[in-house]
What does this fold into?
Amino acid sequence: MADVLAKYHNVILPIQINYPATQQSAGDLIPEKIDYPSSTLTTDKNQMAHINVFVDKDGKARKLPVGLPDENNQYIPAFSAALANLVLSDQEKIKRDPVSGIWTRGDTVIPTNEKNQVTTEFYSKPRQKIGTDTGYESLSFVDVLNSKDGIPLPEGAIVLVGPFVTAMQDEYPTPISSVKMFGIEIHANMIQTLLESKFYKDSSKTTGVTIIVLMGILAAFLFERYKGKAALILFISLFVIYILVWFVMYTVWNTFFPMIYPVFTLVTIYIWSIVSHYLSERKERNRVTGIFGRFVSKSVVDELLQSGEDVKLGGSRKDISLIFVDIRGFTPMSERLEPEQVIQVLNEYLDVCTKAIFKFNGTLDKFIGDGVMAMFGAPIEYDNHPEMAVRAAIEMKSQANILEQKLIEMYGIGVKFGLGINSGPAVVGNIGSEDLRLDYTAIGDTVNLSARLESNAKPGQILISENTYARVKDLFQIEAVGEIKVKGKEKPVMVYEVLGHL
It folds into this structure.
C-alpha cells in the first residue's frame, strides 16, 4: 500500500483532529491530539486531509470546515477540499490566503465563518441500507476486491472509501432528513458543493436585526390598526410573504436570512395584539357597563351586552309601562334650606327612586328637575312589566315615608312622592344626533298619559291608568278614584289608586 501511495499522488488519507472534551467550538483552539496516518504508509502532507465534521447547536451537520489548524497553526485542508482540488484546474483550486485568512475557490470567495466553516448543499439522501439509491453510485468493497478485471470507472471520478457501519458512530443528522447520514456520504456532498461552487452564506447580524425590527414595527402597526379576521389575514399574509422572501434568498442568492426570530417576533406581536385588543375591549365594556348601569339594572345591562345588538338611531313600537315620579312639597322646602342641603335632600330622594327602579328591572330614562321618568319592558322585553312598575312604585312610596320622617327630625319639614303609572304601546329607541348624542327614551300617548297621572297625584298617592289596572288588579290592593279630565285628552280617563300589596 505504501508503494501504491508513493506511485499515485491522487490518493488522500484521513486525518482525525481531536479537541478537548470541554470545547464548544472548533474555532481557534489548539488541537488536543491529531491522528495522522501511519508513517509507514506516507509522510507526504499533500496526501493527507482532515475528516472532521462538526454539528451545529441543534445537532445537525450542515457546515463544512474547509480547513483546520494543526498543532503548529498550519492549516490542514478538509478531506473534501483536498479531493476537489485534484480535479480542479490551478486557477480554480481551493486555497487560503495566509495573511487575510480568506478561503477562495479560484476567484470566488468562500463565505466561511469564524470557524472556517461554510454551509453546504446536500445532493443525496441518507443511505439506510446497502443497495439503497442515495444519488451517488455505491460499490461494495468486497465486490471490488474480488473483481478479477477490476471495476471500470469514468475518467475523473472521485472515489471515497469508507464504512457504512452504525457501530462506528460515524453518522450525523442533517437538515434534509431525520435519518442520519454516514460521514462518507457527508463528505461526498461536500465535495460536490465545492466543485459546483454552491456556497451558502448567512446574512450579517446587522441585516438580521434590521429584519427583526422592521418585522416588529410593521406587525405592531398593522395589528394595532386591524383586529379580528382582518388581523388574522394580515398575520397569515406576512408569514407567507416572509417565507417566500426567505426561500427566494435561499435559492437565488444562496443567502440565509434569519428564520426563527422574525417569525417568533411576528407570532409574539400577533398574540400580544389579540390580548391587547381583548383587554381594551374588556376595559371599554366595563366602562360602558358602568355608565349604562346607572340607567338600568345590572341584569338588563348583562342581557343587552349578551345580545350583541348595536345601538342605532331610531326606535321600535313596544308594549311598556312607565312611571313618572315627582317630589311634592319640594319647592317650599328648598326655600327654607340652604342650597347644599337642598341638593343633599334631592339626591337622597332620587336615590330612593333609582334603587326601586333597578330592583324591579326598570330603566331609568331621565331625571326631570325633582322628578324621575322610568320605563319597564324596554330595552329588555318581559310580559309582567306592569306588575314590576307597580311594585317599584310601592317600594318608592314606602322608602319615601322613611326618608320623610328623617327630614322632619332634621329640618322640621318633609316631602312625599306623587306617582303616575300607565301601560301600553310606545315608540322606544334612540332619539337625537347619530354622530354626537343619542337619548334612549320613549315617546307616544302612553308616555304622556303617565305624566298627566303623576301631575294629578296627591302627595303619597300612586295613580294608575285603566290599562295598567286591567293587568294588575288581581295582584295589588287597588281602589277606583274615578274619571278625571287630563290635559291632551278630549274624554275623561278612569284612574285607580294603588294602596299596597294584597
The chain has a mean pLDDT of 87. The chain is about 40% helix and 25% strand. The radius of gyration is 46 Å. The CA atoms of residues 276 and 484 lie 61 Å apart.
